[in-house]
Amino acid sequence: MSLVLLGIVVLPALGALGATIAGDRRGQLAGRVSNAATGLSLALAAALAVHVALDGPVSTVLERGDGRALGGWYANHVGVALLLLVCGVSTVAQAFAARYLRGDSHAGRFFAATGLLTAATAAMVSAATLIGLAIAWTIAGLALWRLLGLYGRLPAAREGARRTAHAFLIGDLALWIAVAVATAQWGALDLRELSTLAPVLAADQAVTALVACLLVIAAIVRCAQLPAQQWLPATLAAPTPVSALLHAGVVNAGGVLLVKLAPVFGASVIATHLAFLAGAATVIYGTTLMLVKPDVKGALAHSTMGQMGFMIMTCGLGAFAAAIFHLIAHGMYKAALFLGSGAAVHRHVRHVKAPPMRALSRRTRAAIAALAVLAPALALGAAATWLHPAVGGVQGSGALLVFAWTTGAWSAWGWLCRHPSTAGVLTLLAASILAALGYVAVLSAVTAFLAPAISPATAAVSPWLLAPVLAVFALATLVRLAPANSRLREPHKTLYVLALGAGHVTAQAAGHRAGARQPRRGGLGALIPRSQANRS
After folding, report:
1. How many helices (H) and strands (E) does the chain have?
2. What is the mean pLDDT of the chain?
């Protein structure tokens, strides 16, 4: 099966080469070649996942005399799960792009960069050495930068590529410094044997803390966490398939890095707390901005930012299996949402044109709020007790149940506001029970599958630090569900305006390069095309 693992990494690169040879003039052929290569890679990843589940990890590495890896790839339970995500999302996104970019003059270059991005990401999630992971990490960043810069004639696209390049430069520099320090102190790290380094990491606490904090900085930048969050919203000028591809191991690469380096990251109290604080702050920031963004892709981008904050925060808690589960589930779900964003716009237009909903009384709203909070909580509690009694154990699955409850409560609120009837309540109860059973069953199965490949964190953050984050969301929920004339709603408009302003990219930053000549006309005249102005 080592050749199968090699094929998973190499095939997308060959597809990129084929797309480059086909060129922009034969963009449709370039799309077919690249998508066929990635689709075959997905099929091989599925076969490899079955083999690893039955017979254990697979590796194709070049080893030294003492058995340590010099380079190559390695797939354990975590690796095959991530390979399925990378190849699956990339295959779907490229199939979508084949029609989305039909006739586009940049199609050949798009599919070449997409194949390179897929190959580099697959190499990153299955790297057997720290140096190999860092090389693949940097190549994936360069491939994304190339994709964002394809439409350089658009000022917004140029700005997105510029912001991404600046942010990635900082993150990659932190990662490479960590690689250099770790290699100088401990030698070339074989990621298959990191768990044996525990005594060395405990003895070299200062070096361990330095390397772990540098890894956290790299993860924070790549996952668009505070204070390096601005690059992600700036990428929305790129084609929609690029936004979907971001979720195939690019914007969520920080979680992969921290999980694969868990013995190093989890051995530092400073690093785990730094990750937790950055993730918690970004959860609140990204989710708040998501709620006020008026455009679909903007809301999805800030939602991704908040979700990645949850993933990084979960890594800080030492719940690495939960982080991987969230990474994979969110990656597939959000990629599908981006690809369906056009359909969402059409649904929104139909909703706007539909007759307005009947106004609800204060008593009805209070009953709906109580039911929306209680129904998902009771369903998840019963499902966890029945299917997964150790849900709050060492793997940290309890954090995911809190997230699932929050999501279910908001979904239930939206449903009941539109269907405030007995049939609507019964439908909600049935859906809550089925969804809770399905979610907990999948969570239990995935956690058990990933457990053999997860290293525990010795310096994990206390779960009690989740309390302030949950308190903020509880307060926000109370403000959102409170009646319009309640005092709780008084700061609502102010917070709305502040959040809307925080997520706004200024016209100068998004629309003009430094030193570019600006029009001399001011006021409304600056918005009128020159030909129109002359005619008037």
Report:
1. 22, 2
2. 82
